[in-house]
From TrEMBL:
Cofactor (UniProt): FAD
GO MF assignments: fatty-acyl-CoA binding; flavin adenine dinucleotide binding; glutaryl-CoA dehydrogenase activity
Swiss-Prot/TrEMBL keywords: FAD, Flavoprotein, Mitochondrion, Oxidoreductase, Transit peptide
Source taxonomy: Eukaryota, Fungi, Dikarya, Ascomycota, Pezizomycotina
Every Acyl-CoA dehydrogenase/oxidase N-terminal domain range: 61-172
Similarity section: Belongs to the acyl-CoA dehydrogenase family.
Residue span(s) of domain Acyl-CoA oxidase/dehydrogenase middle: 176-274
Domain Acyl-CoA dehydrogenase/oxidase C-terminal, residue spans: 292-434
GO CC list: mitochondrial inner membrane; mitochondrial matrix
Keyword Iron on entry: no
Protein name: Glutaryl-CoA dehydrogenase
Protein species of origin: Hymenoscyphus albidus
InterPro entries: Acyl-CoA_Oxase/DH_mid-dom, Acyl-CoA_Oxase/DH_mid-dom_sf, AcylCo_DH-like_C, AcylCo_DH/oxidase_C, AcylCoA_DH/ox_N, AcylCoA_DH/ox_N_sf, AcylCoA_DH/oxidase_NM_dom_sf, Glutaryl-CoA_DH_mitochondrial
Length: 441
C-alpha cells in the first residue's frame, strides 16, 4: 500500500510544530482541565475508561497528546493494513521508514539535524503507537532511532553527525546496530570482532568479525559495529557504510524462517578485513559504555512499545469475547474466568505504562538510571508476554489463525523479552544494584 503524499503532508506539520511548542510547555500537564466544580452542582463521578484505567492521559501535556494522536493515526490507518501480509511474507517494506521520516518519528528526541526534538515521553508514545501494530515495525524504528542515531548523537564527531543524522531522520539512510556475535550474546564484553590498522590503506582500519541476529542488517546502509580496537583491546564503535565497502569485505545475509518478528528483517554481518576510514570510528567512547548507553535508550522505548502490543491484545480479546457466544447464547465475556484474564492484562498494561511515563519524565530531567530502565524493560516485557499468552486462550481455536492477530503479538513479544538483555539478565542487573554483589563473574 502506498501512502498518499497529501495525507502524509497533513500529518507532518502537526508533529513538527508540536515539537517546537513542546519546548516551551513540556512541563505543563493538562490536569487542570478536569472536573471543575461549583458550589451548587456536585461533580459528576468520572466514568471508568477501560482503555486508560488510571487516566495516564491526565499526566501528558497537550503537545504529547497531539504527537501520540498523530502517531496513532498514521499507524492504524497506514501500517496496520500492511502488517498481516508482511508478516506472512517475512518482509519489511522500506518505504515505511521514509514515511516515518516524513512525519518526524525517527530520532524524535534529537534536537537539530532535521529531527523533531520531542520529550522522552512523547517518543515513548510514538513507540507505543507503532508497536500496537507490530513489534517488528517498532524494532526497525528503534534500531534506526535509539541505537544508531542515538549512538551517533551521543558519541559521534560533528562530521559524523552532519553526515548521517539528517538523512537518517528522513529515512533515506537505514541503520543497523551490530553488537551480538554468534558466540557472545548476553556477554558482549567477550566479543571477538577486531579493528586493526589497515595493512595497505593509510588512514584506514581493517575490521573483521561476525555479528548475528542484527535487525535491519540485510538492507542497512550504515551499520554501527562494535569491535575491539587492537591497539588498546577496548571496545569501540565503527560506522560501516555499505556503499564504501569493497566487494567481499561486507556480507549481510538474512536470517530467514523466523517464528517471531517476521515483519522486520534480521540478518548477520560478516566483515572480512573491511577497510573503514579512521574518521568513521567514534572518537572517545571506549568499552561497553558505548553500546550500553545506546541500549538504554532503546530499552526505554521497548518498555513503552510492549505496552502498545499488550493493549492491542486486550482490545482484540475484549471484542472477541463480547461477540463470541457459548452456552445458552451468552457472550464468553460474561464468564468470570474470561473477565479475570482481561482484568489482569489491563492492570499490567496500565501499571507498565505509568512506570514508563515516570521513567520518561525522569529521563528528561537527567534523573533516570540504567537500573530503572532495566526494571521497566524487564517487567513490561515479561507482563506483556505472559498476558498475551493468556489472552490467546480467549480466542479458542481461532487463536491459531493469523487473521486474529493475537498469535503474531505472542510470537513477537517472546523476542522483545529476549533481545536487548534477556529478562533474566535484567534481573541480574537489578539484583546487583539491590545487593551490591556482582553476579556476572
Ligand atoms: C529478532 C531478533 C533481533 C535482534 N536484533 C539485534 C540487533 O539489532 N543488534 C544486536 O546486537 N543484537 C540483536 N539481537 C540479539 C539479542 O540481543 C540476543 O539474542 C540477546 O542478547 C541474547 O543473546 P543470545 O541469543 O546469545 O542468548 P544467550 O546469551 O546465549 O542466553 C541464553 C539464555 O541464557 C541465559 N543466560 C545467559 N547468561 C546468564 C547468566 N549469567 N545467568 C543467568 N542466565 C543467563 C539468558 O538469560 C538466556 O535466557 C536480536 C535478536 C533477535 C532474536
Amino acid at each position: 500500500m502506498q501512502l498518499e503524499a497529501t495525507e502524509l503532508n497533513m500529518l507532518r506539520p502537526l508533529l513538527r510544530n508540536v515539537a517546537k511548542q513542546s519546548v516551551a510547555t513540556a512541563a505543563r500537564p493538562v490536569a487542570s482541565r478536569g472536573f471543575a466544580t461549583s458550589a451548587s452542582a456536585p461533580a459528576p463521578t468520572p466514568a471508568f475508561n477501560w482503555e486508560d484505567p488510571l487516566n495516564a492521559r491526565n499526566l501528558l501535556t497537550e503537545e504529547e497528546i497531539s504527537i501520540s494522536e498523530t502517531a496513532e493515526a498514521y499507524c492504524q490507518e497506514r501500517i496496520l493494513p500492511r502488517v498481516l501480509q508482511a508478516y506472512r511474507d517475512e518482509n519489511y517494506d522500506r518505504q515505511i521508514l521514509e514515511e516515518m521520516g516524513e512525519l518526524g518519528l525517527l530520532g524524535a528526541t534529537i534536537q537539530g539535524y532535521d529531527c523533531a526534538g520531542v520529550s522522552s515521553v512523547a517518543s515513548g508514545l510514538i513507540t507505543k503507537a507503532v508497536e500496537r501494530v507490530d513489534s517488528g515495525y517498532r524494532s526497525a524504528m528503534s534500531v534506526q532511532s535509539a541505537l544508531v542515531m542515538g549512538g551517533i548523537e551521543e558519541f559521534g564527531t560533528q562530521e559524523q553527525k552532519d553526515k548521517f543524522l539528517p538523512k537518517m531522520a528522513k529515512g533515506k539512510l537505514l541503520g543497523a546496530f551490530g553488537l551480538t556475535e554468534p558466540n557472545h550474546g548476553s556477554d558482549p564484553g567477550s566479543m571477538e570482532a577486531i579493528a586493526k590498522p589497515h595493512p595497505t590503506k593509510k588512514g584506514y582500519l581493517s575490521l573483521s568479525g561476525s555479528k548475528t541476529w542484527i535487525t535491519n542488517s540485510p538492507i542497512a546502509d550504515v551499520l554501527l559495529v562494535w569491535a575491539k580496537y587492537q591497539e588498546t583491546g577496548k571496545i569501540r564503535g565503527f560506522l560501516v557504510e555499505r556503499s564504501e565497502c569493497p566487494p567481499g569485505t561486507l556480507e549481510t545475509p538474512a536470517i530467514k524462517d523466523k517464528n517471531g518478528l517476521r515483519a522486520s528483517l534480521t540478518g548477520m554481518i560478516h566483515l572480512d578485513e573491511c577497510p573503514i576510514p579512521e574518521a568513521n570510528m567514534f572518537p572517545d567512547v571506549e568499552g561497553l559504555t558505548g553500546p550500553f548507553t545506546c541500549l538504554n535508550g532503546a530499552r526505554y522505548g521497548i518498555a513503552w512499545g510492549v505496552m502498545g502490543a499488550l493493549e492491542d491484545c486486550i482490545a482484540r480479546s475484549r471484542t472477541y469475547a463480547l461477540e463470541r457466544k457459548q452456552f445458552k447464547g451468552n457472550p464468553i465475556a460474561k464468564y468470570q474466568l474470561v473477565q479475570k484474564k482481561l482484568a489482569d492484562a489491563t492492570t499490567d498494561a496500565t501499571y507498565g505504562t505509568l512506570a514508563a511515563l515516570q521513567v520518561g519524565r525522569l529521563k528528561d530531567q537527567g534523573k533516570a538510571t540504567p537500573e530503572m530502565i532495566s526494571m521497566i524493560k524487564r517487567q513490561n516485557c515479561d507482563r506483556a508476554l505472559s498476558n498475551a499468552r493468556t489472552l490467546q486462550e480467549v480466542f479458542g481455536g481461532n487463536a491459531v489463525s493469523d487473521e486474529y492477530g493475537i498469535g503474531r503479538h505472542v510470537a513477537n513479544l517472546f523476542v522483545t523479552q529476549t533481545y536487548e538483555g534477556q529478562s533474566d539478565i535484567h534481573s541480574l542487573i537489578l539484583g546487583r544494584a539491590i545487593t551490591g554483589l556482582q553476579a556476572f563473574v
